[in-house]
Amino acid sequence: MAAEGTMRPGAQATQLALNMKLIAHNELAGFGGVGEGSNMQATKDGRRILWLAHESAPKNFTAVDVTDPKSPKIVVQTDLPHAKVRSNSLDVVGDTMVVAYQTKEWGLKPAGLDLFDISKPEAPKLISHFDRSGPSSRGAHCVWFTDGEYVHLTSGAPDFEPSHPKDDQFYQIIDVRDPAKPKEVGRWWLPGTRKGDAEGPLPRHPRFDGGYRPHNTNTYPQRPDRVYIGYIDGGTVILDISNKAKPRLVTRWRHSPPFNGFTHTVMPLFNKDGTIIVTDECTKDNGEDWPKLAWVVNGSDETNLVPVATLPLPPPEIFTKRGGRFGAHNLHENYPGPCSMRSDHIVLGTFFNGGVRVYDVSNQLQPREVAYFVPASPPLTPKGSAQINDVFWDDRGIVYAMDRFTGGLYCLEMNI
Amino acid sequence: MLTQESRAATRDVLAGLIPVSIITGFLGSGKTTLINRLLKKPEMNRVAVIVNELGEIGIDNDLVEVSSEQMMLLNNGCLCCVLRGDLQETLRDLFVQRRNGEIIDFDRVIIETTGLADPAPVMQTLLTDTLLLEQFRLDCVVTVVDAVNAAGQLDQFQEPQKQAALADRLVVTKTDLVTAAQLDALTARLRAVNTRAPVRLAVNGEIELAYLIDVGLRRTRADLEEVERWLGETDEHGHSHVHDAAVQSFVLRFEQPMSWASFTQCLDVLTALRGPDLLRVKGLVNVEGKTGPMVVQGVQHLFHPPLELAAWPGDDRSTRLVFITRDIPRQTIADLFAAIGAVGSRATQG
Prior knowledge:
The complex is a heterodimer of chains A (416) and B (350).
Chain A: E1 16-18, E2 20-26, E3 34-42, E4 48-54, E5 59-65, E6 73-79, E7 85-86, E8 90-93, E9 96-103, E10 112-117, E11 125-131, E12 140-145, E13 150-155, E14 170-175, E15 183-188, E16 217-220, E17 223-230, E18 236-240, E19 248-253, E20 263-268, E21 275-280, E22 294-298, E23 306-310, H1 316-319, E24 346-350, E25 356-360, E26 368-374, E27 388-393, E28 399-403, E29 409-414
Antiparallel strand pairs in A: 1-26, 2-29, 3-4, 4-5, 5-6, 7-9, 8-9, 9-10, 10-11, 12-13, 13-14, 14-15, 16-17, 17-18, 18-19, 20-21, 21-22, 22-23, 24-25, 25-26, 27-28, 28-29
Chain B: E1 18-25, H1 31-39, E2 47-51, H2 54-57, E3 64-67, E4 71-74, E5 79-82, H3 87-99, E6 108-112, H4 119-128, H5 130-133, E7 136-146, H6 150-156, H7 158-165, E8 169-173, H8 180-193, E9 199-201, H9 209-212, H10 224-231, E10 247-254, H11 260-274, E11 278-285, E12 294-299, E13 302-303, E14 307-308, E15 319-326, H12 330-340
Parallel strand pairs in B: 1-6, 1-7, 2-5, 2-6, 7-8, 8-9
Antiparallel strand pairs in B: 3-4, 4-5, 10-15, 11-12, 11-15, 12-13, 12-14
């Protein structure tokens, strides 16, 4: 019967949903591959614009008017200068947008970040480009920008020579108070990753060497003196940035090995239990690097992080066969801006072919799955399944899930 | 709904649960015809129906897409499956298969009981099984009553009487085969057994869908209309006046808030002494120190875990409890509440 797949031929292609309802789908004019940059702008004329960074060339970013989330409309879609660069990540504060640029090879341009004036979303106006290209730099993979003053950046730099090619990006604080002239004011790298460091060489992951680089570098107004970093194979890193010129290590927690590395996002919930959600990123298809999990960590004592649970996922023996990647990746990051929902106990994550899934972690020890949405396989997807890459939950309660390849944008209502 | 800055806001624990309807009724009462008709409604396109035997459900052939011994897929998106082991196991399996993408994303479950079944254990499973409470909620007990044979069956057997007594909704079938006088007599008889469940007549199994679904509380932010739909008439004068009837239903109201400890003590005593005869209890309790009312739902000796509504629906903040009992008069329970001192004031006299 159904368990053997005989009841529903092609069942893997169908939509799966619990307490989430698809209210609109937009394939983004045929460029439905979205990276991991999504943020919402409230324009002065009363519109809601969702800005999305694309996963890869040819498109740079797309702005979608979601004032009526049942009828999303593309406002603008921009192109990258060439195929060896991707934007992947962006953030929006007021009418200013920061976009990351990462090249496929060292030495190429543009590598770094752009600042745009998006007061007219239809016509983003470049304010400045902050160049991070260099002989050992691919530029920037990820930006975090919440206060309008400093960009927290994962990037290489012209003066940084890594001790291992995979360790070519590090944490940087970029002062953009004068958006026409961004400047670096602080940096931190995991000791041993820069050529000449006294430490090292660092042991590589025995099976999946993802490198020692930051991925997400999150800060929150509740702890302006902290940055929470998913440091890929370096694990979870919390830095004291009360002195931006000299970030200082507060804690580092590694769960790989024995797990399979690639720590991606570290998100404190600032709840009474000190819960921190830490995600891995699944980077291999068909379960090759399973398990890639979203960890529930007790961070009551930030110097001694203790994993207490993982967010429950449907069975890997089924989902790793649905095509493409299956495992943890991005979270809705409780972005501290006017258009973002924030919760200290509801967590939304993306799990590639596991779709977007929603958890209640009020009981830290027993997180509960309360909703999910897995789209039907988008047409022309190279993986045979949807690969939900990123998620944004707006202050109106609408959830936006984005596909990595062809699916584009899914607007969802949640009943929880 | 969570709001942007309401960090203390909690998830609505009822909102995401999948509603379960129980369709019960004596042998030959027309349960399968009713289910067949329901499944043809356009809104009922993602329903999982649990039956005892697939052969018995008699789904129209033109509706069946694929069938195996255990499960039948219908071309409108629904599925029928056989009750395996116990209900808990079947519902858990269904949920797991749903999550795994092996079956449809059903958004409603209908359980058809056998004609001779006592629906109480099915209800108890749904109200008290901690695993199922995470995913499902009891929405409605629909009891199908055969206009031709019901009068005799109600006299002769215990089951149909209990089936009628436990119902949230009564549906009378085969009404075209009896006279108006016979129908009136049956309706009066059903009213005596179950004062609060509305009675509707079905012709060829046809009945308005809205009558049968979304009866139970489906969110903790329920408004007055939703609460009244679930609880029915709670005017105390509406209680059953058929004094010789073994099964009776009535409402108790208390104007003053009570402590949760006293209230549960009353229920403990009642269930310990008369559990089997306490057929069904549902209502709202005004508990000291709580913002919203506590929801009470029980079947015989088992009760749903305590659940607080976000706010009082409407101005009436009195405790109101609907009881359906067998041989327990209203006064006995009112006296018990008074004796235990659950309330500062006695139950207001109806």
